[in-house]
Amino acid sequence: MVDATQDAGSTAALFASFNANASTASKASTAADTQDRFLKLLVTQMKNQDPLNPMDNAQVTSQMAQLSTVTGIDQLNITLQALSDSMTSSQSLQAATMIGHGVLVPGKGLDLANGAAFGGIELAQSVDNVDVAIYNQAGALVRNMQLGAQPVGLVNWQWDGRDNSGSSVADGSYTFTLDVTRAGKKVDAAALQFGMVNSVTQGAQGVELSVGNMGGVGLSQVRQIL
């Protein structure tokens, strides 16, 4: 099932690449047409000029300089668009390799399965203690986990599916909150949710990943690939 989804993602990326090439070629053709029309107008103007008051060299040079400037801007725009299209297609192909892998993205959900659930924290500074509070779907506290002091960066943690009394709880969806302190004061920390990448989609907003039951997640939101 994963292989089929991955092939579909790769195919979509190839189609996107073909469309990008076609779009670039169309824009190049438009720029060439604009240049041809400009030259035709200039030649027509010179043919129909007043013999007693012809265009001087400065006027011709000025118009040719304008043509050169417009052409240069068009070519620059085409080149930048081609680079952008190429990067988008490359992102789609790279993202397709993430199918079947676990990722950490911003979120406070926990999926408990077979007595195990995973989560993460993103810390902007080292801290003295991290307290993770896990709640069931009814909002009742199930478990408190003290992770102690943690360094700056990404911190992964695992829940064994047991409540505060040591009893196993049912598999399913849970949520968690963080209480992070440094020198006795609370500090901000980003909660990260774990999920498996199921498929890759190329949309108007860029590359999106279908992660677990979270739906579409932007590629830029992925904090870690596990």
Layout of helices and strands:
Elements: H1 2-47, H2 57-96, E1 102-106, E2 109-112, E3 117-123, E4 127-135, E5 141-150, E6 153-159, E7 172-182, E8 185-186, E9 190-203, E10 206-211, E11 216-218, E12 224-225
Antiparallel strand pairs: 1-9, 1-12, 2-7, 3-6, 3-9, 4-5, 4-7, 7-8, 9-10, 10-11
Helix pairs in contact: 1-2
Number of domains in the coordinates? 2
Judging by the overall fold, what is the CATH architecture of the largest domain? Sandwich
The percentage helix is 25-40%
The biggest beta sheet, please? 7 strands, antiparallel
Features:
single chain; 226 residues; alpha+beta; Immunoglobulin-like; 2 domains; 7-stranded antiparallel beta sheet; 5-stranded antiparallel beta sheet; 12 strands; elongated; disordered N terminus
